[in-house]
Amino acid sequence: MITLRINGKKHDIDVEPDMPLLWAIRDVVGLTGTKYGCGKGLCGSCKVLLDNSPVQSCLIPVSIAEEKNILTIEGESENLQLLQESWIEENVPQCGFCQPGQLIAATALLDKNENPTDDDINEAMIGNICRCGTYQRIKKAINRTVELKKQS
Amino acid sequence: MSNIKNISRRSFVKSVGLASGGLILACNTPVFSDKDKKPENLVDFNPNLFVQLNSDGSLILIASRSEMGNGVRTSLPSVIADEMDADWSRVSVQQAVGDKKYGDQNTDGSRSIRYLYEPMRKMGAMARVMLITAAAQKWQVPETECSAENHFILHTSGKKIAFGDLVEIAKTLEIPSEENLKYKSPKDFKYIGKYLKGIDAKEYGNGSAIFGLDKRLPNMKFVAIARCPVTFGTVKSFDKTEALKISGVVDVIEIPRIEKPFGALGGIAVIATNTWAAFKGKEALKIEWDFGDNQVYDSDQYMNQITENVHKQGKIGKDLGNVNNAFKNAAKTIESTFQLPHLAHTPMEVPNAVAWVQGDSCEVWAPTQAPQSTRKEVTDYLETTEDKVTINVTFLGGGFGRKSKPDYVVEAVIASKTINAPVQVVWTREDDIKHGYYHTVSAQYLKASLDKNGNVTGWLHRFALPSITSTFMPGVDYAAGFEISSAANVPFDIKNLKVEIGQAPAHVRIGWLRSVINIPHGFSINVFADELAYAANKDPLEFRLNLIGNDRIEDTKDPIKYNTARLKNVLKIAAKNADWGKELPEGHAFGLAVHYSFYSYVASIVEVSMKNNKVKVHNIYTVIDCGIVVNKNTVTAQMEGAAIFGMSLAYYGKITAKNGAIEQGNYNDYKMIRMNEIPKVHVEIVESTENPTGVGEPGVPVIAPAIVNAIYKITGKRYYNLPLSDYDLV
Ligand code: FES
Ligand code: FES
């Protein structure tokens, strides 16, 4: 048995310790917002926060995630919720498939940097592919969130 | 007789997936292939568009097209809602299953809005009139004193009543006659032509949108399939011992090859209790393959072969005037050869499908652009009848043409039938890149003559590329008509023009990829025209406008007219937006391209810089004329996305084969544009009252040639082949 703490809730699951966290979340726990895009750490679709750091869940064996705090797209965090609103305001998603990973990457960025520069955004988001090409709007939505936070 | 009916009381309401009750209008939109067959009486009435107004005021539309980032689930209902004066927040969309009763459901060819705009408007207008009539009856006042506004009917006296409260009366009414039907004036549109937010934006952002990959059924098994590295190779023998030892693997079965265009490739399938176990089990299989004929395929050698074929005379595709004479009498002739590789779609969501076969019935949940052909493939395989097969369309995590080819659904159906349980077949990213329906590989040769004033007097365009038709008719080794037209319809005012095609047999499955043949033709024509401008010592913009020549309708033998004035117009606007001719920073330059495809006109001007021999794109100014625009947000987004899609193929797009096997396997060797590489994309949409035309694809073909043209301006080097990574430029 391995215990995962996802979005504040405990899940005891019976899986091989080398199963990547991605598949434990999707197929065993049953939260499908975290996506498979490449399985090799190349696309960022599978990003989750592991103790507040963004990781590619397709590369992390469940055993390493045990007892750590995992935040997925279904979870709650101030920055994630603010970004989700901006995503709607800026009409970011096209097919939508990459967006959970993009939002998690952006959340991680804003969690540690309240005022990211363009380069900071590029660096934080470079691991996330969007085949539909929504990058420009992702950037806008991140900047919008930053501005809103500054104002409040 | 109208093609729209009030079906509120008819029994087949349930069969289209709507709950009964409420006012329901149905419309019979013409299917493209049998346009002349008009539904004249009730017996022939097979409606394929449905809208329902319930007494609680909710307005539901059945969306017959697939959502894959194209925005149809937003744009289609917005048209009805606008004409009806409905409140956008009360509108919801139900996704149709794959069924002929919904008409043409293929979501490709950039057609959804083109076919459905008029019927949608008409339905909305009729619903509005019926609600007005209902209110007038209820209040005992003349209809002329009533009007609709934001989900209410208003009376001149000031009283008002909600749409929902009129449903009971409205549903008993006849539909209004078409002759007197009044449409809204475009200036009163509230949604059409505006920036409307995506109806599913929230679900996309919180992870609750269900894509094919997210579908779950009780006791569903996960399936990964090992397919032969060489296209159409088959299994000689296999050993499943090691795979079965993996925890979670429950079975290993053989998937036969189904020799149909969208049939299964065949292979060995690992059945497991989770995706990971299935993937691991697949790696552990030992398979001996019979590679078959295509193992000879070496894409480098093949490129040489088709290049030779364009350096000799080919079959005639078009012949105007006399090019040979033009070349003989020329002041100058220019010739160039272009080589473009295969491409893969790589939608972010890999091909996948859930299937559950029970007896002779089957239910499928799949991200498909083509629910009806999927239904047909499944029906054929199961040797059953279509009514026993249900295709549920999930959200698509991108399609780009890949998901209109349902081979992956057939695999799931075979697996489910074999193990007698619901299954989900999941392709790995490697499977997706190594076993696709590839965008064609091409060699092109262009030659043109200039007179002493720099006018183009002759134009020869010869190309060789394996045809999409080869996927449907094995053995076809010349381009088909639809692959010739984008070269033959080059909109230049040249008296002597010839198009020839060279031989090019296919060794992999060739399929359509976002903008299809317009990628190679848009590239070669735009780069070559730029080259001619320099040969003529003229500014590329001015030269191009002259080359297009007078305003005229080109004879393309197509009902939708190709208007050169609209083509020049988009180019001129792009030039104005970019401020063509202005002084740019050292090492920067503009490049331009303009192309007509899917009946839309698109020009892009890109601003590029070169530093340490590396390309950077700073700005892309795109202008599209696609007729009437339903949702500006969607069109703008599609143009932005197309710019990135075009950049990806220009920078990195290259699929190669050695000994018949595809060499690339994931995003490390089949790269995509990422956040740090993006330019600013500026989009302008031409205001138009012409019929709506395609949007999803026509933004792609202009990007690569515009970049190559800008690089030439900076470096004096002309790149005829893609991708640019081959030259170490990115
Ligand atoms: S699926 Fe993990 S990075 Fe692509
Ligand atoms: S929105 Fe489709 S991949 Fe990003």
Fold and architecture overview:
By secondary structure, chain A is α+β, with helices and mostly antiparallel strands. Chain A contains six helices and five strands, in the order ββαββαβαααα. Chain A folds into two domains: 2-71, Beta-grasp domain (Ubiquitin-like (UB roll)), CATH 3.10.20.30; 78-151, Orthogonal Bundle (DNA polymerase, domain 1), CATH 1.10.150.120. In chain A, α3 packs across α4 (99-112), α3 (78-89) crosses α6 (135-151) and α4 crosses α5. Chain A is globular, with a radius of gyration of 15 Å. Chain A starts with a strand and ends with a helix. Chain B is of the alpha+beta class and 730 residues long. Chain B folds into three domains: 13-206, Aldehyde oxidase/xanthine dehydrogenase, molybdopterin binding domain (Aldehyde Oxidoreductase, domain 4); 212-292 and 351-426, Aldehyde oxidase/xanthine dehydrogenase, molybdopterin binding domain (Aldehyde Oxidoreductase, domain 4), CATH 3.30.365.10; 299-343 and 437-727, Aldehyde oxidase/xanthine dehydrogenase, molybdopterin binding domain (Aldehyde Oxidoreductase, domain 4, 2-Layer Sandwich), CATH 3.30.365. Chain B contains 18 helices and 30 strands. Residues 36-39, 41-46, 56, 58 of chain A line the site of one FE2/S2 (inorganic) cluster. Chain B: Pfam families: MoCoBD_1, MoCoBD_2. Chain B: GO terms for molecular function: oxidoreductase activity. Chain B: It comes from Lutibacter oceani.
